[in-house]
Amino acid sequence: MSSSSAAAFGSADSTAARRNTKRPKYSKFTQQELPACKPILTPRAVISVFLLVSVVFVPVGVASLLASRKVVEIIHRYDAECIPQSNSSDKVAYIQNPSADKTCNITLNVHKHMKSPIHVYYQLDNFYQNHRRYVKSRNDEQLRDSEKWDSTSGCKPEDMANGKPIVPCGLIAWSLFNDTYIFSRNNKNLTVNKKGISWKSDRDHKFGKDVFPKNFQNGSIIGGARLNDSIPVSIYVNNNYQCMYEIYGSPLFFYEQLSQQEDLIVWMRTAALPTFRKLYGKIEVDLNEGDTISVILKNNYNTYSFSGKKKLVLSTTGWLGGKNDFLGIAYLTVGGLCFFLAMAFTIIYFVKPRQLGDPSYLSWNRNPGGH
């Protein structure tokens, strides 16, 4: 065999060997040899980090907790007291009776000055809006596009009524909260502003401006509130909005699209937990300490079938939003824990120091015999 043939044969063998090997191709990336920051966790560095975290977290926690404590809340549970004594033995039958008078009067006492805007919430307990079948029971195409009004896939069992598609379809819309509240102070009504209570992104992108309710709550079982099919037409006259009835002497109406029905939009944003609050509206006047607020409410919504609770909540807001002590407590807990660890490591460092990188602390040097 000539030398050239032997060289060619050897080259082929080496190429085949490289193809068959499982060793990765060498590179600094695969071998983790790229330039990198590799800090050494010295005692001073660890103590400094813990102290820095505690110095930052503790003031933030104190500020968050103080902001939460400044929020004034009035919470009143009314589901039990709004059942007549004669119907207390069968609450479900009472709430499902359409001819029964559901009017209830309650009184709220303002224990501290409440600065406007005052947010009015309804709170439901033991209501699982996060149930998978409930969350999926809607059709977003139908809510966005008027041409898809008959698209009811995923909405069963509330997809059709009397042989016609329901708009909006699904269990979420069908179970829309329908208790109502009328507030007064010193025999003067307190107006509740229900505009702007939903997310603007929901109004603009999830609910079409040309989509209108159709055939809603027309089935054999009524789940919750009915939607406003029409509202009075108002026009701007003499620096004021006036109903067309006042101008032309007869009422005129136009259909209200889903993007304007903000109670529905708020309800359709499902809650993650079984206890949740939904914004009902805003009172845009201050409430003074010692004021007595009279509330006439309609106790329509059925929470008695699943042992749920209903509460009316009036709340101010701070720079962090509503009343919530969790964020402040969490910051204080983490900051306090880091401060404790920093002090503990400092004591150990001064009481029982050891040389950094001392090989005598390695296990095989501490036990030369391997025992």
What's this model, at a glance?
The chain has helices spanning 3-20, 43-70, 91-96, 132-136, 140-144, 171-174, 200-206, 244-248, 262-268, 326-351, 363-366, and strands spanning 73-77, 103-109, 118-125, 160-161, 164-165, 180-185, 188-190, 192-193, 230-232, 234-237, 240-243, 253-255, 276-283, 292-298, 309-315. It has 371 residues and is α+β, with helices and mostly antiparallel strands.
What's the helix and strand layout?
Blueprint: H1 3-20, H2 43-70, E1 73-77, H3 91-96, E2 103-109, E3 118-125, H4 132-136, H5 140-144, E4 160-161, E5 164-165, H6 171-174, E6 180-185, E7 188-190, E8 192-193, H7 200-206, E9 230-232, E10 234-237, E11 240-243, H8 244-248, E12 253-255, H9 262-268, E13 276-283, E14 292-298, E15 309-315, H10 326-351, H11 363-366
Antiparallel strand pairs: 1-15, 2-14, 3-13, 3-15, 4-5, 6-7, 6-14, 8-13, 9-12, 10-11
Helix pairs in contact: 2-10
Describe the structure.
The protein is built from eleven helices and 15 strands. With 371 residues, it is an alpha+beta fold. The protein has two domains: 41-71 and 321-352; 72-316, no CATH class. The strands form five sheets. A five-stranded antiparallel sheet has the order 1-15-3-13-8. Strand 10 and strand 11 form a beta hairpin. Helix 2 packs antiparallel against helix 10. The two termini are 61 Å apart. Mean pLDDT is 86; it is low at 232-254.
